[in-house]
Specification:
single chain, 423 residues, mainly alpha, 69% helix, 0% strand
Length: 423
């Protein structure tokens, strides 16, 4: 006779139900991680519910004992604490400092998601592969854009030699695609048979989607960073040395065969030369941001001007006040952004988060998760030189969620057999 749920002992049924409830915040996190590349609204909803339901995860005394030595936990809370304290001395309008608190909330939420994810190994892997599945859809859509106009794509034109991006903007897509390249390379090393060939077969199309099907120059730098991380993290030193030596040749070949990328590099050089007379071009904008932002930092170097102050105060440092609407959103540099609003304290707090990620990499015994977390850290550090990745919506989703996910996995992988762990 077949048994059913009614035949189960009441205590077993209650325990099973409690376990599902306690895992719900982690599953909602996984939904948010999967949705981030393709459906930002769904990701926002899932992540909000995950935070609201976090108390249901329970076992907080046990979680705290596992968490209190985690460097990323303390670094994330410190950085968000600096942002919160910044509202006590800012002269920014309420709407601006509230916007900053909301934008950077996910940094503080890392401290909530970490202890939840550390006890959910199955959810961690499903969240990572959910992200990979979403990026595979983005990759397929990007290539399909060459021949067909897709209704869900941001770019609505076909053809080779023009830029194609599917969701959000091309910078954000290239950031996530660069990490996807690293994920595919590492997964290809671990798997066998058709899975290995599937992962490796997606590597080149992913790289080409950045170098040949996108107008973004940041993407070229970031995919080079991802390839370099993979090369130096390879277990065999001779193979790693060869890989590092071949990396410049590979990128040189990409530039030689991509007229779109080649034109953008030439354009960047021209914009840099004319930056003094044309601050409105992409490169000119960033260089002008750098000059005006540094001047603003010099007036409040220790604690900055306060949370949200950049949006209004930067207008006082512009050559033309009427350009305020062009330069007031963010300075295209995360380090300078924290420096303006929070001074040296804010910059140190952000560097502390990057350092905490490096410490987590160093302490982990898993080669796999070390490489992924090192790649994420390198992408965040490099991207912060050209953009404001913790401010921009989809980028901040990607970096904060992946930070929580990989930091949790790398931290629990500190055991003797961790080197043999697979994705």
């Amino acid at each position: 006779m077949m048994s059913n749920a009614n035949d189960m002992p009441p205590q077993t049924t209650a325990t099973s139900c409690l376990g599902r409830i306690q895992s719900l915040p982690a599953w909602l996190f996984a939904v948010g991680m999967t949705a981030t590349p393709v459906a930002l609204g769904l990701a926002n909803l899932a992540l909000l519910l995950s935070l609201l339901m976090a108390p249901l995860a329970g076992r907080w005394r046990e979680r705290w004992s596992n968490l209190r030595q985690h460097p990323v936990f303390w670094a994330a809370l410190t950085l968000y604490g600096v942002i919160v304290l910044g509202i006590t001395y800012t002269d920014a309008p309420t709407s601006d400092w509230l916007l900053s608190l909301n934008k950077y909330l996910k940094v503080g939420a890392i401290g909530v998601w970490l202890p939840i994810l550390m006890t959910e190994p199955r959810v961690r892997k499903l969240a990572l592969w959910g992200f990979a599945l979403a990026m595979t859809f983005v990759l397929g859509s990007t290539w399909a854009n060459v021949w067909w106009v897709l209704p869900w794509s941001e770019t609505q034109h076909t053809g080779w030699g023009v830029s194609h991006h599917v969701f959000g903007d091309y910078i954000t897509q290239n950031v996530m695609m660069s990490f996807f390249v690293l994920l595919l390379l590492i997964a290809g090393q671990q798997t066998y048979g058709w899975r290995r060939w599937l992962c490796w077969s997606l590597v080149l199309p992913s790289i080409v989607s950045i170098t040949h099907l996108s107008q973004g120059r940041t993407g070229l730098v970031l995919v080079a960073t991802a390839l370099l991380v993979f090369a130096v993290s390879m277990p065999r030193r001779k193979v790693a040395f060869i890989a590092v030596a071949l990396a410049p040749l590979t990128l040189g070949l990409a530039l030689a065969t991509s007229s779109l990328m080649r034109d953008r590099v030439v354009q960047a050089i021209g914009e840099a030369r004319q930056a003094d007379t044309d601050p409105y071009s992409s490169i000119g904008h960033r260089l002008y941001n750098q000059r005006t932002t540094l001047a603003m930092i010099a007036d409040a170097p220790l604690i900055g001007h306060g949370t949200g102050a950049y949006h209004t105060r930067i207008c006082e440092y512009l050559d033309r006040a009427e350009d305020c609407h062009i330069f007031h959103w963010h300075p295209h540099n995360q380090y300078l952004f924290f420096g303006v609003n929070h001074g040296l304290v804010g910059v140190i707090a952000y560097l502390g988060l990057l350092a905490a990620l490096c410490v987590t990499v160093w302490r982990s015994e898993s080669t796999t998760w070390k490489s992924l977390l090192l790649g994420l850290t390198a992408l965040l550090a490099v991207n912060s030189l050209f953009n404001s990745p913790l401010w921009s919506a989809r980028e901040s989703h990607f970096f904060t969620l992946m930070t929580a996910l990989l930091s949790a996995q790398a931290w629990v992988s500190r055991r003797a057999n961790a080197a043999h762990e697979t994705i």
